[in-house]
Design a protein that fits this description.
The structure is a homodimer.
Chain A (H helix, E strand, L loop, with lengths): L3 H8 L3 H9 L7 E2 L5 E2 L2 H16 L3 H11 L7 H35 L11 H8 L11
Antiparallel strand pairs in A: 1-2
Bound molecules: zinc ion (ZN) (4 copies).
One zinc ion binds next to loops of chain B.
Chain A binds a DNA duplex through helix 2.
DNA sequence: TATAAACTTAGAGTTAACTCTAAGGTCAAG
DNA sequence: CTTGACCTTAGAGTTAACTCTAAGTTTATA
């Protein structure tokens, strides 16, 4: 039986976060001491680790909540249920990556166009590009 | 001279956002009618477009604020000043991309391992992976 | 003139996931 | 018995960038 600090150490979460997850319904302490201290059983610890793993992969707290409800009642859920959540998450991630790659591309173009030196920014091509509003069309770029 | 709604149409921002940007010091209306309506000059419009462009590229409101202060006083700033902001942003973006690629990789592995069918999740490999906490080590994976 | 669209303000609400604070209680070690 | 580390709670604060509301004013149009 671990106390909250020990669970924190074990999982890499903070005690604060564990309490927050408790409020969110992700982690609970099977036992409480008379004085109110939380005590975590092995089962609780495994659930906390599940939560940590799922969060680390990138699932939202809400997703983890759903995954946990599947976890406690696997026989009434299907692989499809699980892949749906996972696929949705992957789609999110893919979309974010696309956006970021576009930003990356544009930023690279800007950096390539500017000398970066100590001279006056009066004719800085980055500033000019931002003013021209066609700085938003990244193309094939070297490097 | 445009009113806020017209500027909104022209820039693709909303009137709300323009007012928010005003509070944040990014956009201001050179004129006000007697009744208090904002009126934007061509110069204001160009600044608003600069803001829109910079935001679209991914610069934070704070970054844009800094870029604007360079913009109004280019001769007292250098290309280095500008590239620093841009490079910092690119570094941020690169870091986020790395994190997302890791997530993407892991999610792909999970999806590959699960049949995704209508059968019970009792032996679902995604659930197993989340329970095993070694689901976090993405390796080379086929597409 | 009447109506509707557009505008004004201050300030509150949204989202996600924490993060921290205050004020106090508990427990093991020395 | 005292000290210090650890625990408790409710609830407020953080961040970024909006987004919305309410209640009222102005303006253009029919
Ligand atoms: Zn230069
Ligand atoms: Zn430059
Ligand atoms: Zn299956
Ligand atoms: Zn499965």
């Amino acid at each position: 039986m671990l106390r909250i600090g020990e669970l924190a150490t074990k999982t890499g979460l903070t005690a604060h976060t564990i309490r927050f997850y408790e409020k969110s319904g992700l982690i609970n302490a099977s036992q409480r001491s008379e004085s109110g201290y939380r005590y975590y059983t092995d089962t609780d610890v495994r659930q906390a680790e599940f939560v940590k793993t799922a969060r680390k992969i990138g699932f939202s707290v809400d997703d983890v909540s759903t995954l946990l409800s599947i976890r406690v009642d696997k026989s009434n859920h299907t692989c499809q249920d699980v892949t749906e959540i996972t696929q949705r998450k992957l789609n999110d991630v893919n979309e974010k990556i696309s956006e970021l790659l576009l930003m990356q591309q544009t930023l690279k173009i800007l950096l390539n166009s500017c000398c970066g030196g100590p001279e006056s920014a009066t004719h800085c091509s980055i500033m000019e590009a931002l003013d021209a509003s066609n700085a938003l069309k990244p193309r094939i770029v070297a490097e």
